[in-house]
What we know:
2 domains
Amino acid sequence: MVQRTVLAVLFDGLQSLDVTGPVEVFAGAELLSPGAYRIRTASLDGAPVRTTSGLTLVPDESLATAPDPDILLVPGGTGSLRPDPRLVTWVRERGPRAGRLVSVCTGAAVLAAAGLLDGRRATTHWAYCDRLAREHPAVEIDPDPVFVRDGHIATSAGVTAGIDLALALVEEDLGRDAALTIARHLVVFLRRPGNQAQFSAQLAAQTAQREPLRDVQRWITDHPDADLCVDTLAARARLSPRHFARAFRAETGMTPGRYVDRVRLEHARRLLEDTARGVEEIARTSGYGTPEAMRRAFVRTLGTPPAEYRRRFRPATTA
């Protein structure tokens, strides 16, 4: 077995979970397959660093003495938004030597400052996508995916997305069963594919201020197979269809139809991952009506049909 060195870069003001999340994934893989990964951490001068939450992390060594890794992990945090010029120089010089260069959250800002994302597609935490695009116009920023891979460089969205990306790398190295075992061990609710949106419907949409609209949001989530046309939802909110559609968008940030689409897709995904129900039944209970309608929704949004999605993301032991 080829042992892969994982080097996590540490600096003051990093988000602790950006490091510990992926590291726990690789550590879990090492427990499953001893010798698979060698995990190292390094800071500029080898001194301990203080994270945004106040935790202190003690590195194994300095960046000057660190070996060229197979996987170089650059976390995010406030310290990545205005990175130390010495860190940027080190990443610019050493990053291209890594087999795979990975950023978590706003760690993409460090890669961009080093010029390593120029001409590439990348993502970061949703709250910083506009800023990254504005400060680094040569980078093609995609604000939607959980993570993006462009050649040997991978960038991921906020915080826990680093776990999703690390699981994808483990799956690439050790296979799907290993990645799913680690995900279950870490009690990760959903091992998300990279092209999945950063938000669930409930997170992407704001919670409506008025109770009738909040009730409609809950109703949609609890009854994805119901008649969820605007007229029906408006009647439930005791509003005219036009007033309802306008108010729903104003208070949640998306149209009723878009919200319904997201809820139904998430419901179908979870049934594919967590149950052995047939595609036809899932399509019906998720509100699609037919397997073909569900297939079109999956291909349009996730880039893969339901059967392939289940093959990739459902644990073999799930009943």
